[in-house]
Design a protein that fits this description.
The protein contains 13 helices and 9 strands. The chain is an alpha/beta fold. It has 2 domains: about 190 residues, Vaccinia Virus protein VP39 (Rossmann fold, 3-Layer(aba) Sandwich), CATH 3.40.50; about 80 residues, DNA polymerase, domain 1 (Orthogonal Bundle). It has a 7-stranded mixed sheet with strand order 3-2-1-4-5-9-8, sandwiched between helices. It has a two-stranded antiparallel ribbon with strand order 6-7. The chain is globular and about 60 Å long. The N and C termini lie far apart (about 45 Å). Bound molecules: S-adenosylmethionine. The site of S-adenosylmethionine has 25 residues, from helix 2, strand 2 and helix 11.
């Protein structure tokens, strides 16, 4: 099994602008790659690192043990405000959210994320709670699943594939990653070999099982609330759905908002909360992609909290 190589590492560190004695959050510690770079760059400060996947936390523990000032937690970054309250921390100087899955999770057939190898159809990031993908598919309605495939995976023949998946689930034959991949192939039986939709169907089901978009939006909004003036938020997205959320949230809080009277006159102007430092998302260069092909789809956006 391969390890996980942190993407856009230099741009993330530059974006976060690690300051001596500062308090930083890594909301997605994963394999501990970015977290160890942050911890290395940090003198006398504190790093709160978390992941909703208990296995990732255990793995990162070993990698981060040598750094002082690191607190590692099995938590969801969608509960960031609560986590910081529990730790007695008011504001922080920088937050990283590196969304999605790590290569370690993706490559491990036991986790059920990959269609390349057979494994239980689990797909939960947090293996301590919630429905597995097999359980989710056993009760989802066909029209609901079709909508999920469309909006989380841009799957074209969504209705056709959803019908095949639901039919198979009802017959009790939806237990492994192979079962899900077979349902996609059966529904597109005119395609030779594995249909390209298999990848996007897996992506869409995974996003739904983990409610990834809800947590991403909640996490970003809370991150902006807990940043000290001058503090930085760095968010890395790996597909268009994630990047759309990051872009929308940052655009929303970087504009002056006008509160109107019923007759349309301006009652109050609310100043922008952040300044976006990346007019266009930062992407990996050819050399990084050659070394780490997964970096190909990464998009980094950075914002700085303004005074007030
Ligand atoms: C791309 S990996 C992070 C890799 C990490 N930056 C590194 O360098 O090793 C994403 C990680 O975020 C975790 N994750 C995804 N959504 C999460 C959430 N809402 N709360 C906490 N962790 C989450 C996943 O379990 C996964 O381990």
């Amino acid at each position: 099994m391969n390890g996980h190589i942190p993407v856009l590492a230099r741009a993330v560190l530059d974006g976060l602008r690690i300051r001596e004695g500062g308090t930083y959050v890594d909301g997605t510690v994963g394999g501990g790659g970015h977290a160890s770079l942050i911890a290395e760059a940090l003198t006398g400060g504190r790093l709160i690192a978390m992941d909703r996947d208990p296995e990732s936390v255990a793995r990162a523990q070993a990698r981060l043990a040598r750094f002082p000032g690191v607190t590692l937690l099995h938590r969801n970054y969608g509960e960031l405000a609560e986590v910081l309250r529990e730790l007695g921390i008011g504001f922080v100087d920088g937050i990283l959210i590196d969304a999605g899955l790590s290569s370690i999770q993706l490559d491990d057939p036991r986790r059920g994320f990959t269609f390349q190898e057979e494994g239980p159809l689990d797909m939960r990031m947090d293996t301590s709670q919630g429905l597995t993908a097999a359980q989710y598919l056993s009760h989802v309605r066909e029209d609901e699943l079709a909508e999920t495939l469309r909006s989380y995976g841009d799957v074209g023949p969504a209705r056709r594939i959803a019908r095949a998946i639901v039919k198979r689930s009802k017959s009790g034959a939806m237990k492994t990653t192979r079962d899900l991949a077979d349902a996609v192939s059966e529904s597109l039986d005119f395609v030779h070999g594995m249909p390209e939709e298999t990848r996007t169907v897996f992506q869409a089901v995974r996003i739904a099982v983990n409610e990834e978009y809800n947590w991403l939006e909640a996490g970003l909004r809370q991150a902006l609330d807990v940043l000290a003036p001058g503090g930085r938020l760095a968010v890395i997205a790996f597909h268009s759905g994630e990047d759309r959320i990051a872009k929308r949230v940052l655009q929303d809080v970087s504009r002056t908002k006008e509160i109107l009277w019923p007759d349309g006159r301006v009652r109050e102007r609310l100043a922008p909360v952040v300044r976006v430092l990346t007019p266009k998302p930062v992407q990996a260069d050819a050399e990084e992609i050659r070394f780490n092909p997964r970096a190909h789809s990464a998009r980094l956006r950075v914002a700085e909290r303004l005074e007030g």
